[in-house]
Every structure is written in C-alpha cells, then in structure tokens.
Amino acid sequence: MILFIVEGSKTEPRVYETIKKLYFKDEEDIICIFRSNIYGLYNRLKKYNSDFEDLDNVANIVDVIREMDPKNAEESKDIKLSSDIDQVFLFFDYDFQHAFHVLEQHPKCSLEDILKEDNARLRELLDFFNEETEMGKLYINYPMIESLKYTKQLPDDDFITYETTLEECHGQFKKAAEEFSDYKGYKGILWYKAPVDIEELRRNWELLKQQNVMKANYICSRAYSMPVSKEDVSQQQVFMHQINLYDDSKSIAILNSFPLFLYDYFNKIIE
Fold first, then answer.
1. Is residue 28 part of a domain?
2. 182: which DSSP letter?
3. d(Cα 267, Cα 245) in Å, to the nearest integer?
4. DSSP letter at 17?
5. Would you say 27 and 37 are in contact if contact means Cβ atoms under 8 Å apart?
6. C-alpha span between 20 and 2 (Å, rounded)
7. Is residue 27 part of a domain?
8. Are 216 and 259 in contact (CB under 8 A)?
9. Cβ(55)–Cβ(61) under 8 Å?
10. Is residue 246 a part of any domain in this protein?
C-alpha cells in the first residue's frame, strides 16, 4: 500500500487523482490531507520528541495525520501496523511567505533570521523523511503547489528562467501563476470528471516531468539536461541549491515536486 500525505485539500487531491489515473491505476493507495503547512507538520512531530526519536515507525506518522482531520482517520482505518504500508510520500509547499506571518507575531525579529530558522526546520524534515520505505519521503513545491501550472505552452523553453521573490509570494503568487499560465484553472494538466483527452493529459504530464527534472538538474549542477542519476536532483540537493540561490539573488526557482516524484518513482522520462 502507498500512503500519500498532502498539504492542502483543494488542488493537491486533484493532482493525486490525475497521477493515479495516469500512472498508478493498479496500485493500492490512500491519500490523507494534513490541512496545515510544513511548519505545522514540524511542530506536530516535535510533540512526540525533540529529536523525532520517538517516531520509531510509520504508524506514528499516521497517528499525526489522524489527529489533524477525522476524515484521515476514516481513510486510514485499515492501517494498523507500519507493515501495512509499503511506501509513504509527503508533499508540502516551501511556504516562502510563512516568514511574514511569523514577523507579524514577532515584530522584533528580522525577516532574514526567521527565514534561516524556517530553513533549518525544513532541512531537518528533509533529512528525516528521506526514504519512502521507512519513515517516508518528503517532496517540496517551490514556492507552492501553483508552480505546477506556472508554464506557457508545453514544452516551455523558458521554464528554466522562472523565479519568484519573497515579496511576490506574500499573497500574490497564486494570482500571478493563474495569470501567467497557459493552462488556466489547470485545464489540460489536471483530470476532471468531465470528458478529457487522456492522451493529451498524459503528454502534458510527460512534458511537465521533463522540464521540471531538467530544471532541477540545472539548479543543482547548472546543466540543463536530464541528470545522470536521480541522486543528482534529490530533494536535499534541490533545497540546498535553492537556499544558495536565495542568498545570492533573494529569489528562488519555480519548481514543482510532483513531476520530480514521478521521475524518482519510475526513474525514466518518456521522450
């Protein structure tokens, strides 16, 4: 059984339904919605132990998810032991704008210090959730799930250049992504109950996969090509280089984690 844990209740379940229809038709899987950001996940896990040491199996992660929403308890009712789950994947946003929310509550702090603390927490989570067959594997959207549609007509040769700033993420990125995208409302990217061209949808996802993976490789190695190894574009590597990019230019590269997940899972790109 595969357990998918996602941050939000609106777009992420639709992404899950799309990739399930395209890539995981025959898999037994469950989706649970956390309904809070990645720092909420961090704080919940810290309640167990300051060093995550009491989180000795994946069943503990399921307990945390169940606490967040009664619907998750129903969805995961068949999970009794960690052995009931073969793989766990978590999808959360980088949540660049979280620093502004903290600043409002602690105006004496500096924005840069808050960002450093947020990044330290995220690094800790990435180190902890680094294996899907153990505690789970964490994937990060930069800056948020809307990065999935931040593209012109696929394939978009300019995708490598797209970046965003902390200021733009402060309440503006969702609108900016919708206005910029050639796939308004995710049409042509996400599955709807209404009839859609499944082959067009599949082609678009293969192109999304390719351009996100190649951009991840560019972020990590400055080579706009497919990586030699999936370790070259691991979530830890991407995060480290995104932080370096911010330190240099006060911006981060727009990148979505779902195409990267598919690359990791299948370790291939259909040309």
1. yes
2. S
3. 26
4. H
5. no
6. 11
7. yes
8. no
9. yes
10. yes
Output the six-digit token pair for 81. 């032991």
What is the model's pLDDT at position 79? 76
By CB neighbour count within 10 A (0-12 exposed, 13-18 middle, 19+ buried), where does 132 fall?
buried
Angle (CA) 119 125 128, round 5°: 145
Tokens of 125: 């989570």
Count of structural domains within the chain? 1
Q: Which domain holds residue 174?
A: 2-266
271 lies in a domain? no
Task: Identify which of 204, 198, 210, 186 has the alpha carbon closest to the alpha carbon of residue 266.
Answer: 210
Name the 3-class secondary structure at 9: coil
Q: Are 41 and 34 in contact (CB under 8 A)?
A: yes
DSSP-based three-state secondary structure for 56: coil
d(CA 74, CA 67): 11
Rounded Cα–Cα distance for residues 1 and 119 (Å): 31
**What span, in angstroms and rounded, lies between the C-alpha atoms of 193 and 119?**
38
Greatest pairwise CA separation for the chain in angstroms? 54
5 is written with which tokens?
Answer: 């844990």
Predicted model pTM: 0.93
Nearest CA among 175, 202, 185 for reference residue 149: 185
Give me the half-sphere count of Cα atoms (radius 13 Å) on the Cβ side of residue 144: 24
Lowest mean pLDDT among 70-74, 94-98, 150-154, 178-182: 70-74
**Residue 6 in 3-state DSSP?**
strand
User: What's the mean pLDDT when you consider all of the chain?
Assistant: 90
User: What is the side-by-side strand order in the sheet with 87-93?
Assistant: 29-33, 2-6, 87-93, 136-141, 130-131
